[in-house]
């Protein structure tokens, strides 16, 4: 997703205040500067969670090369300032979403300070990390209803890419058919609540957060595009060449943090929630055992292919020119860091989506084989539920059970993230109809 406004001018104007890589006078102390985005929770294995676990520091201490290492963790709201700091030599390693990664590549080349994509954090092969939402009382029911409306997004982000592509598929010119507002995610969220924008297209964790808070409802599930979206780790080329062992230590630590997240999803969600102020229930929606994001440091070919397709969107927005994605992607370091285990990670597939409940006071969740079984459980434990999640019947995107659009099809109860997807199912299945969540609970009981 697990991203950001990236107008070129902002990259140049971002304050260059980071410490950057530094050594003591005798060269025995090395400071490694890591830029991350705590609230962009699909980067946590290279940022928030990794920092809390201390794995990178542990790997650095294990180098035994006569040097003392210090890590300067710097938290940013978006990928743009991380790129600015990297091209100024102030940040060594950074993490961000796919579209900002491309701008990172373009700016690095333009300024003669090349960067390299060295690993992946969180991804979704269908594009489910981005969602278009509207206000809870909005009458908008489909993408076609956005024609002539105000839509907030962060230009140059993956969420903007989702908006552009979704509108094009709906037959709407993304430049002329809507009034696009280029806003930071928090500003766009406020604009939606204030009624000064009709819809908001954003990346993790904003759509889930606003839905959880009752401040928005989904209009379009990015997974309908069926195009991969991901977050990754970028490093300065000169840093990687000068200190390959340090970069490999980072990537080993990232893999360890990934394994921790996979083995302890609830504890990881609670840890990230504590560090970011996000509700743990929202973090788990994306980063949980069956969450929207899959975490894996391997640089999968289908993600590289998606990155190449993204270039055209940024070029059309005049944010970049051509980008040589193949020269930007450099998986040598992660392959060496993970050794024989890399091939298995590269071949690994996302876990199957499943319905899941997080009972109050529980340190573990419970999975169900079908949404109907989950509803049966919920109807019998209405006061004992912290959160319940269901996968969209068409795209597999996980969503909150009480925020989903439910369809009754005979004895089956099927959840959908967005109304348009639910209506498409009903149209294709005679006898199926949309029902309320309360009705779905009653039917399941």
From TrEMBL:
<dbReference type="Pfam" id="PF09084">
    <property type="entry name" value="NMT1"/>
</dbReference>
<keyword id="KW-0732">Signal</keyword>
<dbReference type="InterPro" id="IPR015168">
    <property type="entry name" value="SsuA/THI5"/>
</dbReference>
<protein>
    <submittedName>
        <fullName>ABC transporter substrate-binding protein</fullName>
    </submittedName>
</protein>
<feature type="domain" description="SsuA/THI5-like">
    <location>
        <begin position="80"/>
        <end position="268"/>
    </location>
</feature>
<feature type="signal peptide">
    <location>
        <begin position="1"/>
        <end position="24"/>
    </location>
</feature>
């Amino acid at each position: 997703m697990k991203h950001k406004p990236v107008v070129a001018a902002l990259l140049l104007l971002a304050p260059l205040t980071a410490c950057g890589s530094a050594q003591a006078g005798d060269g025995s102390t090395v400071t490694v500067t890591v830029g991350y985005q705590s609230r962009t929770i699909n980067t946590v294995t290279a940022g928030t969670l990794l920092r809390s676990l201390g794995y990178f520091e542990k790997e650095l201490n294990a180098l035994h090369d006569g040097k003392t290492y210090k890590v300067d963790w710097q938290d940013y709201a978006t990928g743009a300032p991380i790129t600015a700091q990297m091209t100024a030599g102030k940040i060594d390693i950074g993490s961000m979403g796919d579209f900002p990664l491309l701008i990172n590549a373009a700016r690095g080349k333009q300024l003669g300070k090349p960067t390299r994509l060295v690993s992946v954090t969180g991804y979704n092969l269908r594009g489910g990390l981005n969602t278009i939402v509207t206000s809870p009382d909005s009458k908008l029911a489909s993408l076609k209803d956005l024609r002539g409306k105000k839509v907030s997004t962060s230009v140059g982000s993956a969420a903007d890419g989702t908006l552009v592509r979704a509108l094009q598929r709906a037959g709407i010119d993304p430049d002329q058919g809507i009034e696009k507002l280029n806003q930071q995610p928090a500003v766009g969220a406020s604009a939606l609540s204030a009624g000064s924008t009709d819809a908001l297209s954003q990346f993790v964790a904003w759509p889930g957060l606003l839905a959880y808070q009752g401040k928005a409802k989904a209009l379009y599930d990015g997974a309908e595009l069926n195009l991969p979206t991901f977050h990754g780790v970028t490093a300065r080329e000169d840093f990687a060449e000068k200190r390959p062992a340090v970069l490999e230590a980072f990537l080993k630590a990232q893999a360890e943090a990934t394994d921790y997240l996979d083995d302890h999803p609830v504890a990881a969600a609670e840890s990230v929630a504590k560090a970011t102020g996000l509700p743990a229930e929202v973090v788990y929606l994306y980063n949980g055992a069956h969450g929207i994001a899959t975490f894996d440091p391997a640089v999968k070919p289908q993600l590289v292919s998606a990155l190449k397709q993204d270039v055209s969107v940024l070029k059309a927005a005049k944010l970049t020119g051509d980008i040589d994605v193949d020269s930007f992607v450099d998986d040598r370091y992660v392959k060496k860091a993970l050794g024989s285990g890399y091939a298995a990670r590269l071949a690994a597939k996302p876990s199957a989506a499943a319905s899941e409940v997080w009972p109050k006071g529980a340190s573990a969740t419970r999975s169900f084989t079908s949404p109907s079984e989950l509803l049966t459980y919920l109807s019998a434990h209405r006061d004992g539920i912290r959160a319940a999640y269901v996968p969209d019947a068409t795209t597999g995107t996980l969503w909150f059970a009480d925020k989903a659009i439910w369809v009754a099809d005979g004895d089956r109860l099927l959840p959908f993230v967005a109304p348009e997807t639910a209506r498409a199912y009903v149209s294709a299945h005679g006898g199926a109809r949309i029902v309320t969540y309360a009705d779905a609970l009653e039917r399941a009981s």
